[in-house]
Amino acid sequence: MDPRTPGYAHLAIACAHLGFSQFQNCLEAFEQAMNVANETGDKLLELQICVGLGSLFTLLRDLSKALIFLRNALAIIQSVTVDDVHAKYRCTILYHLSVALRMRGSLVEAKEACDEALQLASETGNRALHARCMCSLADIYRELGESEAKETLTKSWARYEEAYRVLRASQDRMGEVLVLASMAKSASESRSHYTGQCECQAIQLNKKCLDIARSLGCKHVMFKCHSRLAELYSQLNDEDSEEVARRAASQLTQEMELFCTESRRELTSPEVFTCLS
């Protein structure tokens, strides 16, 4: 057996755990994959692990660690000389980098990364990744605001809708969830623009996102949907529905172990196993 094979198996397991929001198991699988990458000197495996860890720590909002791993992945990709492989991974890294930079508030850098990712996705014909980049760009414009972004909320909303159509046609269910989550967040924050003074659309989008996330077992997205629904119900003075949503969010917090416990083991470099929340 190729000595690199167990590393890719651990990587696949880590990505599966990430999809189910099983974060501690995910970290342990990434650690095992990284051990194999270090032992075999497999840079392509190390690159994919760094992208996965960047995505993981972005979800956990540990943006310093996320950016360390994603920038390390960018450094590794410079040694890849096969054009189509280079473009594929650079595009993926830049997409994840745009998300992490936006969450950190570095909106200009986020837009630059996203613009390049969009171009690469278009050049390589990767429609699903192009759609995710469109969603990321809409998120960036939403946070820039209409005046600075020089783009109306209506146009940003059209980006979400187009991204959703592409991902649905591609049967990329996780991609659908990501876009719906952004649409739900946008509608929840901008109800006066999208629906007059009514919370109906925001609630419907959150419920739609919640249904798909539940079917996929994606607990982190479910948690975010329940949290937004609780706030929306609070604004409607619907105390019963608010309490149900808050209980559901609290239960998911426990299931995902999103709280500080004992110190964890650490990956070789950079160090990542500290308090996760």
From TrEMBL:
Transmembrane intervals: none
GO BP annotations listed: positive regulation of neuromuscular synaptic transmission; synaptic transmission, cholinergic
Gene Ontology cellular-component terms listed: neuromuscular junction; plasma membrane
SMART domains to which the protein is assigned, alphabetical: TPR
A molecular function (GO) term: acetylcholine receptor binding
Superkingdom as given in the UniProt entry: Eukaryota
InterPro entries: RAPsyn, TPR-like_helical_dom_sf, TPR_rpt
Protein name per Swiss-Prot or TrEMBL: Tetratricopeptide repeat protein
Origin species: Necator americanus (Human hookworm)
